[in-house]
Write a structure and sequence with these properties.
The chain is built from 25 helices and 5 strands. By secondary structure, it is mostly helical.
């Protein structure tokens, strides 16, 4: 069977059934899912989640599920104007039956866990035995960025990872319809994923599969043009294009057109503004877990992540060059697929458990489970007071609170946190302030929160405080 798959790319229902993993795989995947969800849920319960991005997406999805226009009161933008992630409309369906932020946390954990299933099938299709397929799936689960993204709030591109893996399975099985559908769903998880699809087109060019290459590159450029020229201008009222462009590449321009033009005509700007040292470290971080096992046969697959790697290197935002944030998640999957090709085509006898041991060592060094032993425990003494305050806030209240409390109160029409540049007149937009100047959280400052609390007291709002510095003022 393996020989037939490898030579002809056949993938009938019968062959698929024979290639599926046994029950142990699903038990392990379930355990990974529970572990991932448990970690993110504990972090959230410890008041370590944040307005950006868990609270932001939770409010958007809650608004959709309740039939309200999905405009964030923190950003003032429509859900689709953020990253064009239409898949969040599907996520809103379970919110209709039971509104809980854990739909986001659990579905994120599930997507990251179940991605191993198409990875297993890719391995079997390449001719690997089940022992090596276990190792390859272990490489995915042990990618440091996978664990870190799971506990670092929520980002919709995690939903795209199983579908990205499916695109490889479909293209290698000569299933164009499945391939195109997978790409379309993948695109619906975040606008930046057009870079990956463009990269997939480069891979198809390398393999001389011209029709597939044109389809992938055309889909990526067409989707980007649709967002840039139609959807974003329609929702925002101006033609600024993707919101991230001005923040990530201000030295190249304020719009996508300016960035592309200056990349071509003024390459000297890159020399002056790019953090090349940080870039080299970043390349080391994203490759160290699999680099010792990659071979020449991996190069076509690695082309798929080239555009995203280049953008991350050129960005002004340092978080794009870390393993903590979500920006490198698709790269982690692509290098695992590249590893499959290396193992399948190499004459070198790999020792599977040594490979897995190296991956586990990299996970221990670069993943962040140790955060639960220290950094994530800093607010543990505040938990009783904070949850008591939550119980005293009505569901209809318009709330301004600290950024790390936003995800606990985000299922309402108006939720925000006091930013450094906010004006005191903004207090008129709220009924309740729940602030802690002693621990103002991300994006705020003690002085800003003290001014808002003083203004509320001046207006004779009803106020109360707790021992940890938390204060709540409500309009009478």
């Amino acid at each position: 069977m393996d020989t037939i798959l490898k030579k002809k790319g056949l993938w009938s229902a019968q062959v698929l059934a024979k290639s599926l993993p046994n029950s142990k795989f699903y038990i392990v995947s379930l355990g990974i899912f529970v572990f991932f969800w448990g970690c993110s849920a504990i972090r959230h319960a410890l008041l370590m989640s944040n307005a950006y991005d868990l609270g932001l997406f939770d409010q958007w999805v809650w608004l959709v599920s309740n039939g309200f226009p999905p405009y964030s009161t923190m950003e003032g933008v429509h859900l689709l104007a953020d990253h064009g992630a239409w898949i969040l409309y599907l996520v809103a369906i379970p919110y209709k039956f039971y509104s809980s932020i854990h739909w986001l946390l659990a579905s994120q954990a599930f997507a990251l866990s179940i991605t191993a299933l198409p990875i297993w099938l890719i391995g079997r299709q390449a001719g690997l035995d089940s022992k090596f397929c276990w190792v390859i799936c272990g490489f995915w689960w042990l990618q440091p960025v996978v664990f870190n993204v799971n506990i670092f709030d929520f980002h919709p591109e995690v939903y795209g990872m199983p579908f990205l893996a499916l695109t490889y399975l479909a293209s290698r099985s000569n299933r164009p319809l499945l391939w195109f559908i997978s790409l379309f769903i993948f695109l619906g998880c975040r606008d930046g994923l057009v870079l990956i699809i463009f990269g997939l087109g480069l891979e198809q060019i390398c393999r001389r599969k011209w029709i597939w290459a044109v389809a992938a590159i055309g889909l990526s450029l067409g989707w980007l043009a649709m967002l840039n020229r139609w959807l974003y201008p329609m929702l925002t009222g101006h033609s600024s294009g993707p919101r991230a462009v001005a923040n990530l590449f201000s030295y190249l321009g304020n719009t996508l057109d300016e960035v592309i033009l200056n990349l071509i005509t003024r390459p000297g700007l890159l020399v002056k503004n790019v953090d090349w040292v940080g870039g080299i470290i970043y390349l080391l971080l994203i490759s160290i877990a699999v680099a010792p096992f990659l071979r020449k046969s991996s190069l076509p697959v690695l082309l798929g992540c080239l555009p995203l790697v280049v953008v991350n290197l050129l960005s002004e935002e340092a978080p794009q060059r870390t393993l903590i944030h979500h920006y490198s998640l698709p790269i982690a999957l692509i290098v695992v697929v590249a590893l499959i090709d290396s193992v399948a085509s190499s004459s070198i006898k790999f020792v599977p458990w040594k490979m897995l041991g190296w991956s586990a060592l990299c996970w221990a060094a670069l993943a962040k489970p140790w955060f639960f032993t220290g950094p994530y425990l800093t607010r543990i003494t505040s938990l009783p007071y904070t949850y008591q305050a939550f119980s005293e806030i009505s569901e209809a209240s318009r709330v301004s609170t600290t950024s790390y409390l936003v995800p606990h109160l985000s299922q309402r029409l108006n939720i925000s946190f006091p930013k450094i540049d906010d004006q005191l007149s903004d207090i008129d937009n709220f009924d309740t302030l729940l602030l802690n100047p002693k621990d103002p959280g991300w994006g705020s400052h003690a002085n800003v929160q003290e001014k808002f609390l003083d203004k509320a007291k001046e207006l004779r709002w009803s106020c109360k405080s707790w021992k940890n510095g938390l204060e709540m003022c409500s309009r009478n």
